[in-house]
């Protein structure tokens, strides 16, 4: 697309190349070689292959940039001012169960600031992209956060702590408070897609705790460039450090944050 900067063109090409392997493996999910990394946290051969492809493509396009990746961790680059933040397969459990809700997530960080984000669902062929100051797009169409102002008419997304994760009691308290105020709560299984859906106005708001930077870095750029607001669970800007996040339009982001504060007092 003509609106792509050179960096975004590199991101899109890397995502599409990695997606081809994920599409093939998703069609034969029962044959995947799977190793257990932790409770309900699987690493597949597909995951590792996708990360390798993305690493190679981004390194070729921007030699010297550093990386923060789910599987490989931190890779220092000669260029200390730029870093790619990559999740090659966000929604691994969905992938392994044949549920077509997973994504590739790539973000670019410059001087510590997130400046570009891409979230791609290889099965639906939906490519969400955003660059700082340029707006957010789904394929060729400009996207904006939803305009609803009242929680009672809103569908809110979240993530549920699974086996091996802490804070089950905290989450059930949060859920009890939120679901009494909203039209519906959804749990899709890919934080990157949740944020992309907020950017596209499909979800009105979203919250989650205990995420990793690669789960949300690209989605943060998408939501902001779609006119939305993002913060940590206390209203600050430490999402990538604390792992907690709230996203939505200006009204719902604040109202959801107030509900979560109320829940935390009860927990």
Features:
five-stranded mixed sheet; alpha+beta; 37% helix; 267 residues; eight-stranded mixed sheet
Characterization of the model:
This protein is α+β, with helices and mostly antiparallel strands and 267 residues long. 37% of the residues lie in helices and 29% in strands. The protein has 8 helices and 15 strands. The strands form 3 sheets. The chain has an 8-stranded mixed sheet with strand order 4-3-5-6-7-8-9-10, sandwiched between helices. Helix 4 (168-179) links the parallel strand 11 and strand 12 (184-186). Helix 4 (168-179) crosses helix 8. It is globular, with a radius of gyration of 18 Å. The mean pLDDT is 94.
Beta fraction of the residues?
A: 25-35%
Number of strands: 15
How far do the termini sit from each other? 48 Å
Name the strands of the widest sheet in spatial order.
Answer: 4-3-5-6-7-8-9-10
User: What's the main sheet like?
Assistant: 8 strands, mixed
Dominant shape: globular
Q: Rounded to an integer, what's the Rg over CA atoms?
A: 18 Å
Number of helices: 8
**Whole-number mean pLDDT:** 94
Tell me the structural class: alpha+beta
Can you lay out the helices and strands and say which pair or pack?
Blueprint: H1 6-27, E1 34-38, E2 41-44, H2 45-61, E3 65-69, E4 73-75, E5 79-90, H3 92-96, E6 103-110, E7 113-121, E8 126-131, E9 135-138, E10 141-143, E11 155-158, H4 168-179, E12 184-186, H5 191-199, E13 205-208, H6 213-225, E14 229-231, H7 239-242, E15 245-248, H8 250-266
Parallel strand pairs: 3-5, 11-12, 11-13
Antiparallel strand pairs: 1-2, 3-4, 5-6, 6-7, 7-8, 8-9, 9-10, 13-15, 14-15
Helix pairs in contact: 1-2, 4-8, 5-6
